[in-house]
Amino acid sequence: MALLVRELQRSAKGPVENNEDWWRLVFDTDTKHLYVEHEWQHTDVRGAGHSNQGKEQLEIPEYLLQAGQTTGHRELWRLIQTLFAEAH
């Protein structure tokens, strides 16, 4: 399976390295599926040191309908606009 991946946004929540979220635009060349992948790794350093990590796939409309306009949303809109821009 060949995946084409482009990072849309990365964010860190706090001073701990293992408290991050990543959003990537992914195209699976085998299945012809285009989606946004959200991956996270969160570690609670104040409590018992519990770790929460995972990965999920979001369809493009689902991602764009999430609350707020993040850097990732703006980057995805910019990429979409370049697909439809007319050369002058």
Describe the structure concisely:
The protein has one domain.
Report on this model:
The chain has 88 residues and is of the alpha+beta class. It has one domain (3-84). It contains 2 helices and 4 strands, in the order E-E-E-E-H-H. The protein has helices at residues 60-64, 71-84; strands at residues 3-12, 20-28, 33-43, 51-58. Strands 1-2-3-4 form a 4-stranded antiparallel sheet. A hairpin with a 7-residue loop joins strand 1 and strand 2. It is elongated and about 55 Å long. The mean pLDDT is 87.
Instruction: Work out the helicity level.
Output: 10-25%
Alpha carbon gap, first and last residue = 37 Å
Shape: elongated
The fraction of residues in strands falls at 35-45%
The low-pLDDT segments are none
Q: Average pLDDT across residues?
A: 87
